[in-house]
Amino acid sequence: MIRRREFIQRAAVAAAVFGFPLAQAEKMFSQGAPPLPSQNLLASDPDRYWAELRRQWLLAADHVNLNCGSVGCTPLPILRATIDHLLSAEEFREPAYPWFGYEENTRLRELRDALAAYLNCKRDELALVRNATEANNVMANGLDLKPGDEILMTDQEHPGGRGPWEQRAARYGVKLNTVALPKPPESDEQIVDIFARGITPRTKVIFFSHIPTVSGVVLPAKKICALARERGIFSQVDGAHTIGQIPLDMHDMGCDFYGTSPHKWLMAPKGTGTLYVREELLEKVWANTVSGSWKDYSLKAYRFSVFGTSNLSVFVGLKAALDFHQTLGPDRVYARMHEMARKVHDHVAKYPQLYFWNASRDEYYGGLTCFGIKPSADGTANKGLERAAAECAARNIRIAGGADHFRIATHIFTQPTELDLFFDALDTGLRA
Ligand SMILES: Cc1ncc(COP(=O)(O)O)c(C=O)c1O
Q1: Which residues line ligand 1 (CB under 6 A)?
Q2: Predicted confidence (pLDDT) per residue in 340-397, tens digit
Q3: How many Å lie between the centroid of ligand 1 and the Cα of residue 9?
Q4: Does pLDDT of 318 surpass 90?
């Protein structure tokens, strides 16, 4: 039982930092975290297990969140770990450097070890950064390239991946080439062939999102990286959406660089990210934001984490997020979020006017289901999704997309009843 003074303090910090109303924060922090439902319940009544687990989130009961792909939803144990650290750090009891952004302290080392084990890479290959955008910036600005060298990317890149390369092109004259990905793709061979046909003798980097923001398709990253390696080209992968959504193995994938945003699917606090740099390349990459250690190569990948004073508490939260994920079981998490995505798939598949942007095969989607709308029979734009988007907004159902396409994110906190509310909004919009 925490003391009253501590609970009031925690609640006030939660209210200030996360913008919760104070009354709600007080309610949450006046009691212990709700216990996790038992594994027996998962076996006997899985829907009830996942419904009980939902008590771990602060998600408003009168809103449906089907867009945790843009910004993730962080559960209570992770918020608590973050807030507790924020408070205890200010006591300055720990002798090591107490924040993030300079030397590595024990907490950061433990976190890197745990993440390296989870991502199957070495700790020395893993930097902590603040999000995928920052990881993308390190990669786009870090390699020595000459004017006229070419970067190959897809037409589905997020601005946080494309922008750093556009700036590099504007400043230093590298050339950007783009390949168009089909919506949906037919096969891995088709996708790899599209990349292969985009390569020229001057291509130095293939940059792609493992799960692009536009379509949510899970690209065959290992095969694309193998193509790059075969041709002597660097592979840079934007994995903003992957960590916590699909299994990841850096060494098996064979990529050169890989960045993530764990706030999305791993449900970590916002402002946490990871950057993997293959060991052999560590000394070939310039750090982007630097301090005195800019040429201290003995730091290995940690050289990319020396930003100046930053927030350690959110990284304590990232460790709690990884622990939470591992306690639940990554396989079970994937199975449940994909089961919910399959319900979306099956509902959408009933409509001949809708077509998938990713879910043409089971392995091409995880927790994101993306679909577009075909033109009406007379060739004019079909307004069905526009109306459905308005229905969703009116019913407090948060989705990504609009008139042209919807991107629906399902996670372990998504309840079948919430999907029914979404299906009703979609049906209403498409019926009119
Ligand atoms: C593929 C991809 N890359 C980068 C980002 C940017 O993520 P962040 O704002 O966490 O850096 C996103 C965000 O949705 C994304 O989908």
Answers
A1: 70, 131-133, 158, 160-161, 209, 212-213, 238, 240-241, 261
A2: 999 999 999 999 999 999 999 999 999 999 999 999 989 899 999 999 999 999 999 9
A3: 33
A4: yes
Identify the band that residue 22 occupies on the pLDDT scale cut at 50, 70 and 90.
low
Contact 44, 67 (CB under 8 A): no
Ligand 1 atom at minimal distance to the Cα of residue 135: 11
Mapped onto helix, strand or coil, the DSSP state of residue 152 is: strand
What is the number of the ligand 1 atom nearest to the C-alpha of 213?
16
Compute the mean pLDDT over every residue in the chain, rounded to the nearest whole number. Answer: 94
Q: Which two tokens stand for residue 431?
A: 């019926």
Please tell me the pTM assigned to this model.
0.94
| Residue to substitute in 136, 154, 241 for testing ligand 1 pocket (most ligand atoms within 8 angstroms of CB) | 241
Instruction: Count Cβ neighbours within 10 Å for each residue of 56-85 and write b for 16 or more, e otherwise.
Output: bbbbeeeebbbbbbeebbbbbbbbbbbbbb
Spacing, Cα 271 to ligand 1 middle (Å): 12
Q: Helices 188-198 and 221-230 sit at what angle, rounded to 10 degrees?
A: 30
Quick check: 98 and 312 in contact, CB under 8 A?
A: yes
Residue 1's pLDDT is 38
